[in-house]
Design brief:
It contains 5 helices and 14 strands. Strand 11 and strand 12 form a beta hairpin. By secondary structure, it is α/β, with parallel strands linked by helices. Helix 1 packs across helix 2.
């Protein structure tokens, strides 16, 4: 199992002695499995002044975090587009590859927690809004011809069923503890299963995309889109019939009721008892 970190380097709603905003490096470990204990994840934080906002300081912070961590990271995810160059350079200088990704769920939850409990308790706290950094999506791209699924279906699973996920046979995929999204065990989690005779190359290709979420685009023609990275979008399925669009609309309602949690699965055929790919995802507003 690889070790993946999530990183943010940005100003916080707190002023320093010179009345300039404090900046902060936040690093936490990504939970990659459904049964990961959140309190076991590695966390690192470091404040710095606005005169220390550069890749050298960031690289040193990453190296300090590596020195403190039980295991070094295999890669680092970041979501803040406006800091792309500096974060990518800082990670490179620290010797760790970086990836733009919206799969920074643990980091996003930690930032929200600090916004509510840590920063307001600090001297020179400056209350204010925390604007979203969600970026406009790129125009949807078609899946490679060789990877288009022959069939697909909307499905639901009770949240409690995911307790057995460690026993499922899955070739490619990623999950996270449902407590991260405050999900009730009886809640229904919506998902989509794609069936393809080329399930293995399809799942392998998807595993390199930093899968973020699925959503319905009801602009004509209605389509089911897969969001990856920070702003990339892929056409997973066209919805030419009203019934298919209604099912997709019901999927969106179920996703909202499940606090944004949903999944994408890949199987060779409807009779398969194993998953070639399975990704648990959560649609969130990044801040």
């Amino acid at each position: 199992m690889p070790v993946i970190w999530e990183i943010d380097f940005y100003s916080r709603p707190v002023l320093d002695d010179q009345q300039k905003k404090l900046w902060e490096v936040l690093i936490c470990e990504s939970p990659l499995e459904i049964n990961t204990r959140l309190d076991s994840l590695f966390h690192y934080s470091q404040f710095c002044s606005n005169t220390e906002v550069n890749s050298v300081v960031l690289s040193k912070a990453i190296q300090e975090a590596i020195a403190q961590a039980p295991k070094p990271p295999d890669k680092i995810r970041f979501f803040r587009r406006q800091m792309t160059n500096m974060i990518a350079r800082g990670c490179q200088e620290a010797g760790v590859p970086s990836y733009a990704s919206r799969r920074t769920l643990a980091l996003n939850a930690w930032i929200q927690e600090r916004m509510e409990t840590v920063y307001p308790a600090m001297p020179n706290y400056q209350a204010g809004t925390n604007p979203s950094v969600n970026a406009p999506l790129n125009p949807p791209q078609p899946l490679p011809d060789a990877l288009i699924g022959q069939q697909w279906a909307f499905v639901t699973l009770e949240a409690g069923a995911f307790a057995d996920m460690p026993e499922w046979k899955i070739d490619f995929g990623e999950a996270f503890p449902l407590e991260l999204a405050k999900i009730d065990p009886k809640a229904l989690i919506p998902g989509i299963i794609v069936f393809s005779p080329r399930a293995l190359p399809l799942a392998a290709w998807m595993s390199g995309l930093e899968l973020a979420s699925l959503h319905l685009s009801d602009e004509a023609p209605a389509r089911l889109l897969l969001e990856t990275g920070i702003s990339d979008t892929w056409i997973l399925a066209n919805l030419p019939k009203p019934q298919l669009k209604q099912e997709a609309e019901a999927f969106e309602v179920a996703k909202k009721e499940a606090n944004g949690v949903h999944f994408l699965a890949v199987q060779a055929n409807p009779q398969a008892e194993e998953f070639t790919g399975f990704w648990l995802m959560r649609e969130v507003d990044l801040t």
